[in-house]
Structure prediction request, 116 residues.
Amino acid sequence: MRNTPPPPRRVRSAHESKSAAVRAAAAAPSRRQQYKWQREQHQQRTLYIAVGILVALVLAIFAFGTVYDNVIRANEVVAQIGTDNITASQLVDEMKPAVRALEGQVKQLGSGTNIA
Prediction:
């Protein structure tokens, strides 16, 4: 019998308390309690707003980076031949077959060689 745990204690809410003072305090909180609750609510609201702004800022940074890489830099002129302008995306599209051919040669040579 000594090893059995004691029965769990039931915690009463303020409205179920036997003490009249506790029931009265729960029914009509003091100004100090009201101010404390209001302050805690304000702090919690401020925290939620700050976290929301931080998340929005991080998302905006990622979105700008994606747009910059895929739209702005891709349309920059990297070469001019006569009156023709060549953009970065056109250059990359032209170089893809050559890069694939080089990758195939590297695979044939093996991974033991150091190609610079």
Remarks:
- The helical segments are 20-27, 31-72, 88-109.
